[in-house]
Design goal:
Layout (H helix, E strand, L loop, with lengths): L11 H30 L6 H21 L6 H12 L4 H11 L6 E2 L20 H12 L14 H19 L1 E5 L6 E5 L8 E5 L9 E3 L1
Antiparallel strand pairs: 1-2, 2-3, 3-4, 4-5
Length: about 220
């Protein structure tokens, strides 16, 4: 009998791309779900408060996935960091923890089209910044626990007004974005497309270079 053929070994970077792709699929699903919940809120049902809380939970989970995403290149690093941030309640400390491991961890929103000189074009308006990330994360975190009956009343109207704006900021940030993994010079441009289409990605050899070969997942 002949020897069974050994499966080709998947590189660390290929595995990271696959894991990041799966994270973005989860982000996409949570965005769609949160938007559906918000549409229900607009109908002014008796469950409005619980729907607002459900939206905030989804948004916070999405932000956690975006912050941690670039660390999937190293399973040990990802697990250790995940354990560490689980004990942190403020976004500022979470982002500082991750930034020490990967200074370029934050998703970089870019235009889906290159400029005339084939250069990547950054999007800077109506997108998440680290400061906005911290604000939204902490606001949503305040909704994760039952309110103190002796404390300040939760302003659900504020959340009803802010939730669609927060969802738009997140979507604008990741619609087409660049991710850079720690320890690797190559980067990846992620195209989230629309809810009916699959996510796709484009390899870049450096922040200045651009490889036009695109792979659909």
């Amino acid at each position: 009998m002949g020897r069974a053929k050994r499966k080709p070994r998947v590189s660390e970077l290929d595995a990271a791309i696959d894991k990041y792709y799966r994270l973005m699929q989860e982000v996409k699903g949570r965005l769609i779900y949160a938007r559906a919940i918000y549409d229900k809120i607009c109908m002014d049902t008796i469950f409005t408060k619980m729907d607002v809380e459900a939206c905030c939970l989804q948004i916070r989970k999405i932000l956690e996935l975006l912050a941690m995403g670039s660390l999937v290149v190293n399973e040990r690093l990802f697990r250790e960091t995940s354990r560490n941030i689980n004990s942190m309640h403020k976004a500022k400390y979470i982002l500082n923890e991750i930034q020490e491991l990967n200074p370029r961890f934050f998703p970089r929103p870019i235009s889906p089209e290159l400029d005339e000189s084939d250069t990547i074009v950054d999007i800077t308006e109506n997108v998440l910044t680290k400061k906005l990330f911290e604000k939204i994360f902490d606001k949503c975190g305040a909704m994760l626990h039952s309110p103190n009956p002796f404390g300040k009343t939760i302003d659900y109207k504020f959340y009803c007004n802010q939730i669609p704006l927060w969802l738009d900021l997140i979507l604008n940030t990741i619609a087409t974005h660049m991710v850079l993994f720690p320890g690797h010079e190559d980067g990846f441009i992620i195209h989230m497309n629309n809810p009916q289409k699959q996510i796709s990605w484009t390899v870049i050899k450096s922040e200045e270079g651009y490889n036009r070969e695109q792979a659909d997942q």
